[in-house]
Amino acid sequence: MIDVRVPDEQEGTKAVVRAWLKKVGDAVAENDPLVELETDKVTQEVPAPAAGVLTEILLDTDDEAAPGDVLGRITAGTYDPLPFDAEQGKAEPAERPAETPAAVIGDAETRLSPSVRRALMQHDIDPSKIRGTGRGGRITREDVDRAVASATTVSAGEPSTAQPCHFSGTDIPHDRMRLKIAENMVRAVSDAPHVTALFEADFSAIAAHKKAMADRGVKLSYTAYIVKAAAEAMAVAPAINGRWEEDRIAVSPTINVGVGTALGDRGLVVPVVRDAGALSLEAIGRKLDDLTSRARGGKLTAADVSGGSFTISNHGVSGSLLASPIILHAGQAAILGVGKLEKRVVVRTIDGQDAILIRPMAYVTLTIDHRVVDGHQTNGWLARFVEILEGWPAP
C-alpha cells in the first residue's frame, strides 16, 4: 500500500479536498492526476505517486487537509477487478465523526457524511428536498452544490425548479476562497496597524519607453515597470521589504514581489515574481505574462503564490483612481496601490516659467505596518519610487 499525501509546499495553510478525479477501484498510472486540492490561493492536482489501483480514500470531498496528511492509498502492482468491492474499499479515518444514523425517505438511503452535513447547515437546506445521486440515493457534496447553484440562478418572478433553500435569487453563497479571503482580511487589520501615504506619479517617461519597446517587438505591461521600480526603491528603505517579528524586524534577503491578479467573480490570487531586484525589465515582463496566464487558467502551483515579501495592487486597471489596500499577507510590511492611469492637467516649471501641461498621471499609495516603518521611511520610499518612474531613461 502506498500513501497519497498532501504536498508539503503549503506554507502551513490548510487545503480542502475539492474533488477526487479517480474512484476507488480505478487503475491509475504513475503521475496521473488523482485528487484536486483547493486553498484560498490556488487549486492544485495531486498526482499518483505510483502505478496501481486506488484502494482507499481517507479524506473525501470538502475535508480539510494539512501538509503531509494521507489523502488515500494505492495498491501497487497488477489488479484483478472481480473480487474487489469498490464501495467497501472506501475507508474513513478513525478520528472522523460518525455519520448520522441512516434514515429512509421512500427507498433512498440518506446517511449524511460530515462534509454534507456541514454544507447543509451552512446553506440552511432541508436534506429531504434533495435528490441524492450517491449509492442507494445517498446525498453527496456535489448534490448540495448543485442545489445551491440552482437556487441562486433563478431569476425573480420566474417559477423556480431549484431545491428549496433560504436564498433569494440575487444572493451569492460563500465559496471557500471568499471565506478564506474574509478570514485573512480580518486577521490582517487586527494584527497590523495600517497607515497609508499618497503620492502622484507622472507616467510620461514610462509611456514613451513602453511605446519604443513595442516598436522593437518587445511588449511590456505597465505592471512590469511598476514591479521593477518598486524593487529598486527598496534601497532607500529596506525595512519596507521586511516583516515584524517579536524580537526584531526581519528584512528579506531577496525582493519577492506579489502582484494581485483578479479572477473576476472567482476572487483574487497573488502570484509572486521572485528576486525581482535581480531581474531585468524584460525578464519581469515575461514572468508576469506567464504567472497571469496561469492564474487565470487555474494552473498556479503553491510555489507560485508563496514567499512574497512585498505586494502590489494595481487596482487602477479596473478603474479606481485611489485605494488603500490592506496588507493581506502575514509576514509583509507594506503593499503598494496604483490607481487608474489617466490624462490630467498639471503645472510644471520649464525654463523658470510655470506651464500648464496634460500628462498621464496616476495616484500611488503605500500602506505600511506602522510597527515596522514610520512616515519618513514610507515617504522616502514613495519619493524614490516616483522618481524612478518619472526619470525612466529612453531605450
TrEMBL record:
It is an enzyme of class 2 (transferase). Pfam families: 2-oxoacid_dh, Biotin_lipoyl, E3_binding. Residues 1-75 form the Lipoyl-binding domain. The keyword Acyltransferase applies. This is Dihydrolipoamide acetyltransferase component of pyruvate dehydrogenase complex. Belongs to the 2-oxoacid dehydrogenase family. PANTHER family: DIHYDROLIPOAMIDE ACETYLTRANSFERASE COMPONENT OF PYRUVATE DEHYDROGENASE COMPLEX (PTHR43178), LIPOAMIDE ACYLTRANSFERASE COMPONENT OF BRANCHED-CHAIN ALPHA-KETO ACID DEHYDROGENASE COMPLEX, MITOCHONDRIAL (PTHR43178:SF5). The keyword Repeat does not apply. Residues 111-148 form the Peripheral subunit-binding (PSBD) domain. Its cofactor is (R)-lipoate. Keywords: Acyltransferase, Lipoyl, Transferase. It comes from Sphingomonas xanthus. Forms a 24-polypeptide structural core with octahedral symmetry. InterPro entries: 2-oxoA_DH_lipoyl-BS, 2-oxoacid_DH_actylTfrase, 2-oxoacid_DH_E2_comp, Biotin_lipoyl, CAT-like_dom_sf, E3-bd_dom_sf, PSBD, Single_hybrid_motif. Its EC number is 2.3.1.-. GO terms for cellular component: cytoplasm. GO terms for molecular function: acetyltransferase activity; lipoic acid binding.
